[in-house]
């Protein structure tokens, strides 16, 4: 029988908690910064290698603690250069993350939950159901491990993988602070983006968050009935209340929100859809990101034709805001928007 490791995971502790740990051991509190550098900046898990700690301190830490990490199970390289990673947690569940290199940006798309409870009908993750929240350290470890595997410095992080970030907000906040910390991954807050299906309390909470992270909202229809059909969460958080939250967020932060609009063939690309979108965007300080549906195995929906995509795009160009069509990366390895968890089903 395998012995159970009863030691505590140092990565699971916040910077404040580490300072308290060292203070209780009569060590200077700057040790917390040194430890963060070893764990998060250098990515070293072997405590005995922490040479700026005394031998006595290293022995104490090794006796009572360990430095945890996700297990890299597999990775799939896309023809476009993106790489989908599959990691295993200490508890055995698997999650997926994506490395997306493009020009001078090296972006990691991270998961925040195992599965998702929202059951958006166009998203593969929703088919899994909800299996659990990730800890803050597990969210950051996706970035750290991918950076080490690719031997690059990650420049951007998007919370657009498996799960709804605002339904695991406390752990997401912990992750953001480590990602942004000078002692940690050291990514500028404006290079971190949270994507939500429209969890309104989370939008209000982010407006008060001290770091200037970016916000994207998965809209997908500005018609309430249609949005409810593909996003059950819209019943709880209707479009009218969502618009109020967007207005509040901009008034409080003066940061543009990105509206993500997945284009579903023959469903949300007609003139009435455009007119509803036009009305929804009135008075809003937003930009619009059109995302052609990526295949997920749901035969109820189809990817729109190129003609359908550009017809809707040309209508949207009349709106007084920036409109772009997002080219999905990693489709051939099921690593694109809406496809994560495909390898796990």
UniProtKB/TrEMBL annotation:
Any other comment in the entry?
Answer: Reaction proceeds by a ping-pong mechanism involving intermediate methylation of a conserved cysteine residue.
Q: Which domain of life is it from?
A: Bacteria
* Gene3D superfamilies noted in UniProt: 1.10.150.530, Aldolase class I (3.20.20.70)
EC number(s) on file: 2.1.1.192
Positions of [4Fe-4S] cluster binding: 116, 120, 123
Q: Which family does it belong to?
A: Belongs to the radical SAM superfamily. RlmN family.
Note the InterPro entries from the entry: Aldolase_TIM (IPR013785), Elp3/MiaA/NifB-like_rSAM (IPR006638), Methyltransferase_A (IPR040072), RlmN_N (IPR048641), RNA_MTrfase_RlmN (IPR027492), rRNA_lsu_MTrfase_RlmN/Cfr (IPR004383), rSAM (IPR007197), rSAM_sf (IPR058240)
Q: Does the keyword Transport apply?
A: no
Q: Which residues bind S-adenosyl-L-methionine?
A: 163-164, 195, 218-220, 294
Query: Which biological processes are named by the entry's GO terms?
Result: rRNA base methylation; tRNA methylation
Primary location recorded for the protein, binned into one broad class: cytoplasm
Give start and end of each Radical SAM core domain: 102-332
Tell me the cofactors it needs: [4Fe-4S] cluster
The record's catalysed reaction(s) read: adenosine(37) in tRNA + 2 reduced [2Fe-2S]-[ferredoxin] + 2 S-adenosyl-L-methionine = 2-methyladenosine(37) in tRNA + 5'-deoxyadenosine + L-methionine + 2 oxidized [2Fe-2S]-[ferredoxin] + S-adenosyl-L-homocysteine; adenosine(2503) in 23S rRNA + 2 reduced [2Fe-2S]-[ferredoxin] + 2 S-adenosyl-L-methionine = 2-methyladenosine(2503) in 23S rRNA + 5'-deoxyadenosine + L-methionine + 2 oxidized [2Fe-2S]-[ferredoxin] + S-adenosyl-L-homocysteine
| Classification via PANTHER family | 23S RRNA METHYLTRANSFERASE, RADICAL SAM CORE DOMAIN-CONTAINING PROTEIN
Give me the Gene Ontology terms describing cellular component. cytoplasm
Q: Which UniProt keywords apply?
A: 4Fe-4S, Cytoplasm, Disulfide bond, Iron, Iron-sulfur, Metal-binding, Methyltransferase, rRNA processing, S-adenosyl-L-methionine, Transferase, tRNA processing
Q: Where in the cell is it found?
A: Cytoplasm
The note on cofactor binding and number reads: Binds 1 [4Fe-4S] cluster. The cluster is coordinated with 3 cysteines and an exchangeable S-adenosyl-L-methionine.
Record's function text? Specifically methylates position 2 of adenine 2503 in 23S rRNA and position 2 of adenine 37 in tRNAs.
Query: What PROSITE patterns does the database record attribute to this sequence?
Result: RADICAL_SAM
Matching entries from SMART domains are given as: Elp3
Q: Where is the active site?
A: 96 (proton acceptor), 337 (s-methylcysteine intermediate)
Protein name as catalogued: Probable dual-specificity RNA methyltransferase RlmN
Question: Which GO molecular function terms does the record list?
Answer: 4 iron, 4 sulfur cluster binding; metal ion binding; rRNA (adenine(2503)-C2-)-methyltransferase activity; rRNA binding; tRNA (adenine(37)-C2)-methyltransferase activity; tRNA binding
